[in-house]
Specification:
Protein name: Alpha/beta hydrolase
Number of helices: 15
Strand content: 5-15%
Distance between the termini: 43 Å
CATH class: Alpha Beta
CATH topology: Rossmann fold
Pfam families: Abhydrolase_1
GO molecular function: hydrolase activity
Number of strands: 8
Radius of gyration: 19 Å
Strand order of the largest sheet: 1-2-4-3-5-6-7-8
InterPro entries: AB_hydrolase_1, AB_hydrolase_fold
Keywords: Hydrolase
Length: 346
Amino acid sequence: MTANVRHILLLLLVTLILNGCASMGQAMKASPSLANLGGIVTISDRWLEERYVNDESQFMRVNGYRIHYRDIGQGEPIILMHGIFSSLQTWDSWVRELSRTHRVIALDMPGYGMTGAPENPDNFDEDNIVNTVAKFVERLDLDGITLVGNSLGGFVASQYAAQYRDRVDRLALIDPFGYPQQTPFLLDLGTWFPIQFMGQWVQPPFFVTFALSTAYGDADRISDRDAYRYVHMSQREGAKPIYMETLKMVEARAENNDPLPFYRIKAPTLLMWGEDDEWVPISLAERWLADITRSALVTYPGVGHIPMEESPEATLEDFRRFLRSGLSPFSESVAGTRDKAGEEGS
């Protein structure tokens, strides 16, 4: 074992010891068995469907995926796209309120949640995800869309808005991923060959809950319900190799300096960003604001990478203002923040 490898493992061990007690507790409670706690076995689709599919759930076959989505309410359509390793339940607080006035469509993104892997996992990549979402929207025959995306979902939403400019009326990007950046330590570790190799078969849920704790500005705001969901989805049949492929895909994008097409977006775009995001730093907001002509920024002190989950009330209030009045309420938001955002959690 080289000195560099020993240093990495030692640093990881110290970090886990210092930060891992709550994460381990949630991982243990979320695991149906000891084998699940070890990250060795999978959870059956039937078990997952009993917990994560309901009477509002629908399925659509697209590009070899069985897309799981919920289409609720009437009015102008809003499509909600979650980030990596998540699922449509991340939007539950938003959907409940927005569906009173709008048609709200939340989907499990290709590769994740109850949608899961495609029939041919070798097809899973950036272009495949964007193309699948585009076909999904086409099948629903939607125009005048408001697109909302978090993290990798923000990247997909932006790609769609740049390619299908006339279909998108508004765009909201929540801690979006896409521009070159320094990746977080856990992602670097996940793309290290030994971890990549073992991760195809073994992914202990403790690492899932620990990673989730780093995605929040305040890990105490993570509900058991959300922590269990992340663990359960990570143990669905076919999830492990897709998760490892996601890490490689994200690292490749973070190191890619090729120009992005986001300057082509014509929809008014609201950027919403947790100031304590360790996964996609808020400094990158400047790149988005520079490339998207009609854009504004609102930030949330003390909040991390998943603001709609960590601070649902503040983020929903700002999004509803955006729906009502466009960017005008946020004209000073590039330099301003929401003082109360960090105080509101799930």
